[in-house]
Every structure is written in C-alpha cells, then in structure tokens.
Amino acid sequence: MICSDVSSRRKQAGFNVLWLQSGGCGGCSMSLLCADTPDFFGALNDAGITMLWHPSLSIESGARALDILRACIAGEIPLHALCVEGAMLRGPHGTGRFHLLAGSDKPMIEWVRALAAVADYTIAVGTCAAYGGITAAGSNPTDACGLQYDGDQSGGLLGAAYRSAQGLPVINIAGCPTHPNWVSETLMALAADLFDARQMDMLGRPRFYADHLVHHACTRNEFYEFKASAEKPSDLGCMMEHMGCKGTQVHADCNIRLWNGDGSCTRGGYACISCTEPGFEEPHHPFHTTPKIAGIPIGLPTDMPKAWFVALASLSKSATPRRVRANATADHLVIVPAIRKTRLK
Predict the structure, then answer these.
(1) What structural domains and CATH numbers belong to the chain?
(2) What is the model's pLDDT at position 40?
(3) pTM value?
C-alpha cells in the first residue's frame, strides 16, 4: 500500500492521502497503530485509500520524500487528503523557522500552505493540529496554532476564509490523542464521497463523534444521576463534583466508541479533561479538581441552566439510595443491588 517511489505513485488510482507531522508528540499516529483491529493501513487499503507518505511509517526519506511532496504541489500526483498532525509553529516572528522540514531548509508552515492549496480536503489530526493544543500552552514561545483555529478563534495558519479544493474548511479530528476510528472513518467517508459540510460541527469536528458527549454511556452515570460523588481517585462515584471531570460538557463518543473495544478515560478511573475541545490544555486549575463558586461547580452540564442544576442536585442527593451513596466513596461495591422477591414489572 505504501509505494516505494514517485513514478509508481503517479500510477496509483483511488484516494491519495499525504500525512505530515508538525509540532506535537506523534501521539495520534501512535493511537492509530495501537488500534485493535483491523490494522490502520489494512483498513485504508480495503477502502481504496493510498497512503502516499507518512514521515514515521514510510520508507522514503530525504530527497525521495521531498519529491513526493513536490509532485503533489505540482499536480503530478493527485492529493485527495492532506493530513497534518501537530500544531503549526509560526515562530520566530512569523518566519516558521523554528520547524524546518528536514532536508528542505523550508519551514513546515510553507509546505503546509502549498499542499493545502491543492488538496481536495485538509484534515487536522489531533487537537494540536486543530486548535493549537498542548503545543500552544503557556507562554507559547513557538507561536503555535492550529491549521484554521488559534484556540477557539477562527484563523490559525490558513486563515478563516480557507477552503480546500472541494470547498470545505479544515476538518478538525480533535482529540489528544484521536481515537483511531475517528481518523479512519473520516478518511473512508471522504473517499466514498459521503462527507460534506453538513457532517461538521461549528468547530469543524466530524459530527459522527462530536454530536455526542463523553457523559453518554459513562459507567458512572447512576452516581451522576444521584449526585453521589467520588472524593478520591480510587472511588467509584461520579467525578464531576470533586475530581474535575468535564464529561457532561465535552463533545466526543469515548464511552460509546470504546478504545480498543474496552476502555475510556472515565472507565479507567481518570476524569475527562476535555481533550477534544479548544483550550483544554489551560484550564487554569489542576486537571483533577473541580472549580466551584459557593460550592457549585463552575462547569455545568451542557444545555443546563445553573438554577436547574442546583435544584436537581438538591433533589437527587436527598433521594440517593444508601447503596449508591456507600459505593460512591469506595473502590469496590460495598452494597450490591437488592434482589426483589416479587416478579419484575
């Protein structure tokens, strides 16, 4: 599937994908390689998708790799999807010379601009590429940003007005890292001509995963309903009230589309830190704490007015079963559900 030279790529039919890595940790590529089944390249191959080049996974390097990029820019190789992983490093002073593509003496941001100008679709893989992410945290000395966003502000490297050859803005497959299926399903939908602007939310994310909340299908939902909260990391209870969990606000299907078919952050005992959202990297408080005013969490569930939440929480806590209350602050089931002697109705 990964061809060995430019001439063979010119003969390739199907949907061509070029993958670049910029300012980041490479975690999204690692996530793809750790997918359970099928393997990433096998899945793409079955869908008629050709990976033209990936800096960590392809055999070409140096001049041979640059030839592929130049051939795409020149239109000698059709570029259907440009995937960029990692933030765009614009520094110092807008030159982009903090990150030169090896062997080219040319800033990565210039390569990205040139390739995005000819690509049918441009895809930001991961929150760094989408919004800046961890790479843009703190004082941001490299002037890192996303492809079309700088945090939650439209703009970024390519500008708010950018549209790919097929008329779409950058597709932001946000996540830190991304779920492997979010990437493969997006590429397959594009290759099958089943993806358009209606499949993107207001922040450019594919709606098939962004129309859900991490809260959906969370195994701790019974504790959430009764506002029976965990008080320390090993507790079974809901982590929203005291442990910093933002799952009721964050757009992703992590607890529906489990990682490797089995896990998620909350199932592993970790609070959701909102890694699919712009600005998650700087919450201005420790990730494991819930900021409050007058005892009420600042971050309330999506679409719920503050007064409603306060009233619901008060009622829920007063009605919490003893079983739920006891189990919430334990690391194992202290009390199991009662067995009724009568038939269920």
Answers:
(1) 6-210 (3.40.50.700), 217-333 (4.10.480.10)
(2) 76
(3) 0.92
